[in-house]
Amino acid sequence: MGIFSKTCEYAVRAVFFIAQHTADGSRVGIKEIAVKIDSPEHFLAKILQDLSKRGIIQSVKGPNGGFYLDAQSLGRPLSDVIEAVDGGGIFRDCGLGLKECSSKNPCPLHHDFLDVRNRLQSMLESITIGQFNEDLNLGIVVLKK
Amino acid sequence: MGIFSKTCEYAVRAVFFIAQHTADGSRVGIKEIAVKIDSPEHFLAKILQDLSKRGIIQSVKGPNGGFYLDAQSLGRPLSDVIEAVDGGGIFRDCGLGLKECSSKNPCPLHHDFLDVRNRLQSMLESITIGQFNEDLNLGIVVLKK
DNA sequence: ACAATAAAAGACATTTTTATCTTTTATTGT
DNA sequence: ACAATAAAAGATAAAAATGTCTTTTATTGT
Ligand code: FES
Ligand code: FES
After folding, report:
1. Residues of A contacting chain B (CB within 8 angstroms)
2. Ligand 2 centroid – CA B53 distance (Å)
3. Residue range A89-99, pLDDT digits in tens
4. Fold classification of B6-86+129-138 (topology level)
5. What are the annotated GO cellular component locations (chains A, B) (predicted)?
C-alpha cells in the first residue's frame, strides 16, 4: 500500500475527476467516474456517498443527476479529502506507532518524521481541489494508469 | 494506520530495541522485546523470523539464545528494515495509486509527492540502525508509549 | 546422552480493508 | 400521476492485515 489507503486514492482521483468535469455546473455519474479513474464502481459509490454526506462533494439523484462540486467544495484544500477518508493520523501520528508523539517523548525518528509529515501536510493544505483543474485541463497531468 | 504498516512499526521498534540491548554481543529474547516495545509476542515472533531469514537481524536458538545484531546489521540503513517489511513502494509508488508514476505521466500530485518521498527515503537511508543507539542510550528518545 | 531453553514453523482466528450485488429513495421530464 | 434515472442504502463476500496458540527444531549446559 502507498502512503494513503486504496480507498483514499480512489477518493482523491474521483474528486479530481469530478472537479474537472463539473466546472460548468453539470454533474457526472458514478459509472463514468469509476471507468475513467479505474476504480470498482460500487466500492467507489460508497466512498462518494460518504464524501457527499460530509459535504466534501455534492450530489443529486435522478435524471441528469450525479456528482459535482459547488464553489465552496472547489475551494477546499485537498487535505480535507484525505482527512475525511483516512483521518488526520497521517499528519500527526508517530511513524513508529507510539501513542504519544511529542518532542518531549520522542521516538528515534521523531524529529525527522516531523519534517516529512509537515511537508506532506502543508503541500496538501496549500492547494485547493479546484486548482488542480488547470493542470488537468492542460493535459499535463493524468488520473488513470 | 500511519505511514508504515503496523507490522513495520513493530519491526522497527524491535530492531531498535535489539540494537540497544545487544551492542555488547549478548542476545535478547522475544518475550522481553515484545513487552518492552509493546507488541503482541507471537505476531512479533513471525516478523523477526522473517527479518532473521533475510539477514536483517541475527538469532540463535537454545539457552542464552535470542536475537541480536552483528556489525554488518548495525551498519545497515533503517530503510532496509522498512523495505523488508513493507516493500519499497512507499519510496516509489504514486500517491494516487497510478500504476506508472513518472514525470512524463504525472498525476496532479506527482511533483510534490516526489519531494516528500525523497525526503522520507533519504532520511531513512542516511542513518544506520546502530546510530540510533546513542539517542536511545542517552534516554532522550523512547520506544514505548 | 539428556534436559532445559528459545527460536522456527505450522495451524488457526479475528479484524480491517476492499469489493460486489440488490433494493430503496429521491429527482426529473413527460 | 408516471416512467425513467441515478444516487443512497443494505446485505454479503473475498482478500489482506493482524493476532493467538500449539508443535517442532536447534542449541546449550550439565
Ligand atoms: S514520537 Fe515517533 S514520530 Fe513523534
Ligand atoms: S504519478 Fe502520482 S506521484 Fe507520480
Report:
1. 1-6, 9-10, 12-13, 16, 78, 86, 89-90, 93-100, 105-110, 112, 115-116, 119-120, 123, 132, 135-136, 140-145
2. 33
3. 999 999 999 99
4. Arc Repressor Mutant, subunit A (1.10.10)
5. cytosol
Round to whole Å and give the CA distance between A28 and B81.
Answer: 44
C-alpha cell at A58: 455534492
Partnered with residue B98 across adjacent β-strands are none
DSSP states of A15-54 as a string?
HHHHHHH-TTS--B-HHHHHHHHT--HHHHHHHHHHHHHT
Domains of chain A: which residue ranges? Answer: 6-86+129-138
Rounded CA gap, B87 and B43, in Å?
19
